[in-house]
Amino acid sequence: MSQDAARNLGRNISELRQARGLSQQQIARLADIPRATWANLESGAANPTLAVLVGVAQALQVRLEELIEPPRRSGRLYPVSALPVRKRGDVTVRKLLPETIAGLEIERMELPPGGAMSGIPHTPGTREYLTCERGQVELSAGGERWSLSPGDVVVFKGDQKHGYRNPGSAVAVAYSVVAFAPVAP
Fold this sequence. Notes:
Layout: H1 3-19, H2 24-31, H3 35-43, H4 50-60, H5 64-68, E1 85-88, E2 91-95, E3 104-111, E4 116-119, E5 127-134, E6 137-141, E7 144-148, E8 153-157, E9 162-165, E10 172-179
Antiparallel strand pairs: 1-2, 2-3, 3-10, 4-9, 5-8, 5-10, 6-7, 6-9
């Protein structure tokens, strides 16, 4: 590991740990490494294995790259063109988060008049939250049907067959937040 990367690693994990209000002992336990190893990492003098870096990234809930990148700026603008977009039938689905957050997915759905999309059942225990922003959205899940107007939210089991439909004559916009159930190790 280059000296710059090691220095960045030390500074970044120290700032991330402190931002979470955790001691070195607490975060080392979460990363499943000795506290002395964590202290050595924060000093900028360590040359950790990939397994240690993966454990640190998981404990801090960040991407591995964020550990060795130059120190973060206070913010970063992601233009809409940088966010992944896909079409599912005639429905446009855009990710709202440019970075992955373990166990969480947030998407914006734009449904044209009469547009519909089948949802994909997620892992057992997953919860999904659907919010209507504009227009009308119908959600069918588990044999039930809900009609959402702007501001309405439906919470449902995301591990079952479900679908979305715009019954109106104008474009509808909805947001889906999927909280995945933890997967057993």
